[in-house]
């Protein structure tokens, strides 16, 4: 008889699952009823946010590897911390998985999480794992906002500022369109970078912290779509934002993919979302790692314009729609 | 034509759901990419924990009202904060619900959450809502540990201490057994307090904070079962714990329910869990709101004993089992 090579959670139980998670994402703060986090400095503050990924809605198990799902869950939560100008320091993972799930799935998911929190110099400090019909990955991110500078809020854009961005725009939506047409195994090799951008967005670590130090006043991340997310800043700040088409034009690879799919690459850029691009406004020069993609004006009829006109694509992500 | 009286999330969309949540659990910190929490004092620390409730596993929609589910989600998360000796100050809610769910369900769930965070003087500071096949309620709790006293850890029980408890023990399991036999509508009226204990455990607020001030050194909450949870303290602290049968004996109501169900009320007391009773160890007198239920000894063969003998019921909750 062979020993079980690839056991399920029903076979090994909850503690084995907790052990593989802790092996890939260890922390001395983990393992009590709750984790205790020290504060760096007398006037530091704590930033918290949560985002839930549901199988079939936010990822598909035949499109994403478990490690990519783990990376994506951390990236999108930490992007919200960075969008406040804070430094991500910790994450908590609440995970629902069916009992027939392989332990290896949990291990690989934890590897993606552990790698990604490590990229930021952060830790997975706690969590919960439970039986459930679908895979649901709920992450809470904790960040530290050091010093007395204000946090980067949605309502702090001012006329006369430039709009700056760090990260890709539209690549995630292009990857999703390719997966829908071809499935993971059928996507032409040259387009795999776009698929990667969808399954686990590439975002540089620490750019929000840099932006706050460098004079950015308002910031968010592109999670629901470029027009949708900049519209949120524009409405909250009571300004207009004018996007520069030359600065956000689809990349050659995206244009090539659009040709194959007979799609409009501008839809991916303007409505796509899930790139987690950091979008900020500032009176000063673009901080290191950012490029200028538009300008902030006094409020006009349209809240977000593309070269002075209403953009052709302006829908964003909406659950239940 | 009548206006829709009881719309679904598919009809009203994500923003309407966010609005009813914010109406029942408002906070000025909510509404940006992440919430910013101030620190009370230079040497305060932050405590974080997360727990996920899955429909069909942790609650049933035909047994619990949405408000009870909300209360339960907060109570069990805040109990983990209290078990560190910290004061709960904030919660985050990540919620998955099917699109056919009534907006009223979300509103009632949020009412239960808002009431319960209010009991603690805390706030719901952020969240995420998404479409999903099952109702999944994932809460993260944030607490504040003021001053320089140590947190209440699992490994801080010492021989010669007493074991103290705040809250009911076994009532939740009794309520669950009644629901399994009779369903919510069929439970005899006299047993409804036990059903309430199951659907939304009653726990006094602030007892963990009191315990830390009053000399308790180790603490946890009874979530998996009295023997299972005290065994965790015993193992981590390398001690034995002897439970006093007279102090934890089933209540008259529990004994009455056990008679009707032909069950053993001691199983509910020793293995039940989900009461979120705070369990602590101290060399000093029981703090206000606590009673003595046992003693801590040098390590012996059994980690947790009942009047010096191995308890007849010692299984605890295990997902995937």
From TrEMBL, chains A, B:
<feature type="binding site">
    <location>
        <position position="50"/>
    </location>
    <ligand>
        <name>Mg(2+) 1</name>
    </ligand>
</feature>
<dbReference type="InterPro" id="IPR006283">
    <property type="entry name" value="ThiL-like"/>
</dbReference>
<keyword id="KW-0460">Magnesium</keyword>
<feature type="binding site">
    <location>
        <position position="51"/>
    </location>
    <ligand>
        <name>Mg(2+) 2</name>
    </ligand>
</feature>
<comment type="pathway">
    <text>Cofactor biosynthesis; thiamine diphosphate biosynthesis; thiamine diphosphate from thiamine phosphate: step 1/1.</text>
</comment>
<feature type="binding site">
    <location>
        <position position="153"/>
    </location>
    <ligand>
        <name>ATP</name>
    </ligand>
</feature>
<keyword id="KW-0418">Kinase</keyword>
<feature type="binding site">
    <location>
        <position position="128"/>
    </location>
    <ligand>
        <name>Mg(2+) 1</name>
    </ligand>
</feature>
<dbReference type="GO" id="GO:0009228">
    <property type="term" value="P:thiamine biosynthetic process"/>
</dbReference>
<keyword id="KW-0547">Nucleotide-binding</keyword>
<feature type="binding site">
    <location>
        <begin position="127"/>
        <end position="128"/>
    </location>
    <ligand>
        <name>ATP</name>
    </ligand>
</feature>
<dbReference type="GO" id="GO:0000287">
    <property type="term" value="F:magnesium ion binding"/>
</dbReference>
<keyword id="KW-0808">Transferase</keyword>
<feature type="binding site">
    <location>
        <position position="221"/>
    </location>
    <ligand>
        <name>Mg(2+) 3</name>
    </ligand>
</feature>
<keyword id="KW-0067">ATP-binding</keyword>
<feature type="binding site">
    <location>
        <position position="33"/>
    </location>
    <ligand>
        <name>Mg(2+) 3</name>
    </ligand>
</feature>
<comment type="similarity">
    <text>Belongs to the thiamine-monophosphate kinase family.</text>
</comment>
<dbReference type="InterPro" id="IPR036676">
    <property type="entry name" value="PurM-like_C_sf"/>
</dbReference>
<feature type="binding site">
    <location>
        <position position="80"/>
    </location>
    <ligand>
        <name>Mg(2+) 2</name>
    </ligand>
</feature>
<feature type="binding site">
    <location>
        <position position="33"/>
    </location>
    <ligand>
        <name>Mg(2+) 4</name>
    </ligand>
</feature>
<feature type="binding site">
    <location>
        <position position="80"/>
    </location>
    <ligand>
        <name>Mg(2+) 3</name>
    </ligand>
</feature>
<feature type="binding site">
    <location>
        <position position="274"/>
    </location>
    <ligand>
        <name>substrate</name>
    </ligand>
</feature>
<keyword id="KW-0479">Metal-binding</keyword>
<dbReference type="GO" id="GO:0005524">
    <property type="term" value="F:ATP binding"/>
</dbReference>
<feature type="binding site">
    <location>
        <position position="317"/>
    </location>
    <ligand>
        <name>substrate</name>
    </ligand>
</feature>
<keyword id="KW-0784">Thiamine biosynthesis</keyword>
<feature type="binding site">
    <location>
        <position position="51"/>
    </location>
    <ligand>
        <name>Mg(2+) 1</name>
    </ligand>
</feature>
<dbReference type="Pfam" id="PF00586">
    <property type="entry name" value="AIRS"/>
</dbReference>
<feature type="binding site">
    <location>
        <position position="223"/>
    </location>
    <ligand>
        <name>ATP</name>
    </ligand>
</feature>
<feature type="binding site">
    <location>
        <position position="80"/>
    </location>
    <ligand>
        <name>Mg(2+) 4</name>
    </ligand>
</feature>
<feature type="binding site">
    <location>
        <position position="49"/>
    </location>
    <ligand>
        <name>Mg(2+) 4</name>
    </ligand>
</feature>
<dbReference type="GO" id="GO:0009229">
    <property type="term" value="P:thiamine diphosphate biosynthetic process"/>
</dbReference>
<feature type="binding site">
    <location>
        <position position="58"/>
    </location>
    <ligand>
        <name>substrate</name>
    </ligand>
</feature>
<dbReference type="InterPro" id="IPR016188">
    <property type="entry name" value="PurM-like_N"/>
</dbReference>
<dbReference type="InterPro" id="IPR036921">
    <property type="entry name" value="PurM-like_N_sf"/>
</dbReference>
<protein>
    <recommendedName>
        <fullName>Thiamine-monophosphate kinase</fullName>
        <ecNumber>2.7.4.16</ecNumber>
    </recommendedName>
</protein>
<feature type="binding site">
    <location>
        <position position="224"/>
    </location>
    <ligand>
        <name>Mg(2+) 5</name>
    </ligand>
</feature>
<comment type="function">
    <text>Catalyzes the ATP-dependent phosphorylation of thiamine-monophosphate (TMP) to form thiamine-pyrophosphate (TPP), the active form of vitamin B1.</text>
</comment>
<dbReference type="GO" id="GO:0009030">
    <property type="term" value="F:thiamine-phosphate kinase activity"/>
</dbReference>
């Amino acid at each position: 008889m062979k020993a079980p090579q690839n056991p399920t959670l029903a076979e090994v139980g909850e503690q084995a699952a907790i052990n593989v998670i802790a092996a890939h994402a260890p922390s001395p703060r983990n393992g009590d009823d709750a984790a205790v986090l020290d504060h760096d400095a007398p006037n530091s503050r704590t930033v918290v946010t949560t985002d839930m990924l549901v199988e079939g809605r936010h990822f598909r198990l035949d499109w994403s590897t478990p490690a990519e799902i783990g990376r994506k869950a951390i990236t999108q939560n930490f992007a919200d911390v960075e969008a406040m100008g804070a430094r991500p320091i910790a994450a908590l993972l609440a995970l629902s998985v069916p009992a027939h799930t392989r332990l290896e799935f949990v291990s690989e998911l934890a590897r993606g999480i552990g790698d990604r929190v490590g990229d930021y110099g952060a830790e997975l400090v706690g969590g919960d794992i439970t039986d459930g019909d679908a895979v649901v990955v709920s992450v809470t991110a904790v960040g530290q906002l050091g010093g007395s500078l204000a946090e980067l809020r949605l309502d702090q854009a001012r006329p006369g500022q430039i709009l700056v961005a760090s990260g890709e725009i539209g690549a995630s939506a292009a990857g999703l369109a390719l997966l829908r047409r071809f499935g993971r195994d059928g996507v032409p090799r040259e387009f795999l970078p776009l698929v990667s951008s969808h399954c686990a967005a590439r975002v540089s670590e620490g750019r929000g912290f840099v932006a706050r130090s460098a004079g950015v006043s308002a910031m968010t991340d592109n999670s629901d779509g470029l027009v949708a997310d900049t519209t949120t800043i524009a409405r909250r700040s009571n300004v207009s934002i004018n996007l520069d088409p030359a600065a956000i034009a689809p990349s050659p690879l995206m244009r090539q993919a659009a040709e194959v799919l007979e799609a409009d690459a501008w839809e991916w850029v303007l409505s796509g979302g899930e790139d987690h691009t950091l979008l900020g406004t500032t009176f000063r020069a673009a901080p290191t790692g950012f490029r200028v993609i538009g300008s902030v004006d006094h409020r006009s009829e349209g809240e977000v314009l593309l070269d002075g006109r209403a953009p052709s694509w302006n829908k964003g992500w909406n659950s239940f729609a």
